[in-house]
């Protein structure tokens, strides 16, 4: 279809606007219908995608501000297409599993608008368009946390907004400078990343621009020391907010590194490999210890997400096909697994109205199906073989081992800490003596099973047979690495990329 990407981006927004006309009793059915159609559209995009072709496919270009080269420019490759599919998949399951009763109509409309912005971020090839979608995604998240969150929701939502907006403003300065530099070199204005690939940047300019983009992406990931907004946001957000935040929004930062920083600033990227790798290892080690100290289940999962994003960052800056392919695949794996964990925690909270670890014990005796689903998500979270996260982490460590065996061993050893606190959580909640007040709890109902079964199936299926996805990703990753090599000013950068 000629306008498939535009349809995929605009359909949730149109559905959100039409949702204003739907009555409250029918709004959940309406929201599920819209999200299912959106998921089917992204599946059609995947089926129609040529996995062996190099470069961007399904490109659409419509002029917005011709005099300054601002266009509605869309396109996907093997790096972005699966993140678009992941966005629609998790939004659909979140909508199906939605149990929020308070002002549900506005919540569903907000989530549909958020889905539009997330898809736009991964499909935009014009940096101004990318920035608009990037910034606009803050508004629905701010509204979801502030409107449906816990008692400290205003603090959490404002903290989230200030952190991410501050980094985005600095990134905007970098975008404007890069466009002006392109104008001075070519005599025409353009914000298209495909045009910017054709202009070589001096080494000193690359360093400054890398720093500007780095702040925007690092805060969104979030990297240490910019991470403090995430645990607060997760703790206060409703279940659907936590699912979308962990599954998709965090991946926008790591996607930005791969789409923009690596190909545009190859020499600066090589210069910052070891500092960023050290930051990534600090993320893994530090947040793993902090996670183990948590008493709140959602906070423990939130800190574990930061640790996993540290592993993803490590793979991104391996600067080889194994590491970057593993990084993108782990984005998908973490999106599915962390989303599944937050959904399960939300299901338990709806029964007991508590997120404290000490409030539970022995639940496996009365909720065996729930315990089984939780067990699958936990072992996938610690990258157990034949689960989806194992594939991504294996490729990442394989890739970064070529850069630094010592740092790779340290990072891989720190992963053991994740297994310790995850298994501790599972033992504490599901084993031991069942509390009297929990004896009346019921196992997963049909709606909850319908929500969780696809997540469990994907977790195991892609852990056993990841080839259809990894092959597609790898083709685009190698193309990105070739762009890096062509744009590199320094011979050392070309040598490292070749290796």
Task: Please tag this protein with its features.
single chain; 499 residues; mainly alpha; 21 helices; 73% helix; 3% strand; membrane; EC 1.6.5.3
Structure explained in plain terms:
With 499 residues, the chain is mainly α. The chain has a domain at 272-464. 73% of the residues lie in helices and 3% in strands. The chain has a two-stranded antiparallel sheet. A hairpin with a 4-residue loop joins β1 (57-65) and β2 (70-76). α4 (104-123) runs antiparallel to α5 (127-136), α7 (153-186) packs across α10 and α14 (297-316) packs antiparallel against α15 (321-352). The longest helix is centred in the middle third of the chain and has 34 residues, at 153-186. It is globular and about 75 Å long.
Lay out the secondary structure.
Layout: H1 4-19, H2 27-48, E1 57-65, E2 70-76, H3 81-96, H4 104-123, H5 127-136, H6 138-148, H7 153-186, H8 193-196, H9 203-220, H10 229-236, H11 239-264, H12 266-271, H13 273-292, H14 297-316, H15 321-352, H16 368-381, H17 388-401, H18 405-430, H19 446-464, H20 467-487, H21 491-498
Antiparallel strand pairs: 1-2
Helix pairs in contact: 1-2, 1-4, 2-3, 2-4, 3-4, 3-11, 3-15, 4-5, 4-6, 4-11, 5-7, 6-7, 7-9, 7-10, 9-11, 10-14, 11-14, 11-15, 11-20, 13-14, 13-18, 14-15, 14-17, 14-18, 15-16, 15-17, 15-19, 15-20, 16-18, 16-19, 17-19, 20-21
């Amino acid at each position: 279809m000629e306008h498939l990407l535009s349809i995929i981006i605009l359909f949730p927004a149109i559905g959100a606007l039409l949702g204003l006309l739907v009555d409250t009793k029918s709004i959940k059915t309406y929201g599920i219908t819209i999200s299912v159609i959106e998921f089917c559209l992204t599946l059609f995009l995947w089926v129609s995608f040529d996995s062996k072709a190099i470069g961007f496919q399904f490109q659409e270009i419509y002029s917005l501000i011709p005099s300054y080269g601002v266009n509605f420019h869309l396109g996907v490759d093997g790096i972005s297409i699966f993140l678009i599919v992941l966005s629609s998949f998790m939004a659909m399951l979140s909508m199906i599993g939605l149990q929020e009763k308070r002002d549900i109509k506005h919540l569903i409309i907000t989530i549909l608008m958020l889905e539009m912005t997330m898809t736009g971020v991964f499909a935009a090839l014009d940096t101004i368009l990318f920035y608009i979608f990037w910034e606009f995604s803050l508004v629905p998240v701010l509204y979801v946390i502030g409107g449906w969150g816990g008692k400290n929701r205003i603090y959490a939502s404002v903290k989230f907004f200030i952190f991410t907006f501050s980094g985005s403003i600095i990134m905007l300065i970098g975008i404007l400078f890069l466009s002006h530099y392109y104008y001075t070199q070519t005599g025409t204005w353009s914000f298209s990343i495909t045009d910017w690939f054709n202009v070589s940047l001096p080494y000193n300019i690359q360093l400054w621009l890398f720093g500007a983009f780095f702040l925007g992406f690092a805060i969104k990931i979030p990297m240490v020391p910019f991470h403090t907004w995430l645990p607060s946001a997760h703790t206060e957000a409703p279940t659907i907010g936590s699912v979308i935040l962990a599954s998709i929004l965090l991946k926008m930062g790591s996607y930005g590194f791969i789409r923009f920083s690596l190909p545009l600033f190859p020499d600066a990227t090589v210069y910052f490999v070891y500092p960023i790798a050290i930051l990534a290892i600090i993320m893994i080690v530090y947040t793993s210890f902090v996670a183990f100290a948590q008493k709140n289940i959602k906070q423990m999962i939130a800190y574990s997400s930061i640790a996993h994003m540290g592993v993803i960052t490590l793979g991104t800056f391996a600067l080889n096909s194994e590491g970057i392919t593993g990084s993108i695949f782990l984005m998908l794996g973490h999106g599915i697994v962390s989303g599944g964990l937050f959904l399960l925690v939300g299901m338990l909270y709806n029964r007991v109205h508590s997120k404290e670890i000490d409030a539970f014990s022995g639940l496996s005796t009365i909720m065996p199906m729930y315990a089984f689903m939780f067990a699958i998500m936990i072992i996938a979270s610690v990258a157990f073989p034949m689960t989806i996260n194992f594939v991504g982490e294996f490729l990442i460590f394989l890739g970064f081992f070529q850069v630094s065996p010592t740092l790779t061993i340290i990072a891989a050893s720190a992963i053991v800490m994740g297994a310790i606190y995850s298994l501790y959580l599972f033992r504490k909640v599901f084993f031991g003596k069942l509390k009297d007040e929990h004896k009346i709890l019921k196992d997963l109902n049909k709606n909850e099973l319908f929500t969780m079964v696809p997540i469990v199936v994907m977790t195991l299926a892609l852990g056993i047979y990841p080839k259809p996805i990894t092959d597609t990703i790898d083709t685009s990753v190698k193309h990105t690495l070739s762009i890096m090599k062509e744009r590199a000013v320094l011979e050392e950068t070309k040598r490292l990329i070749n290796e």
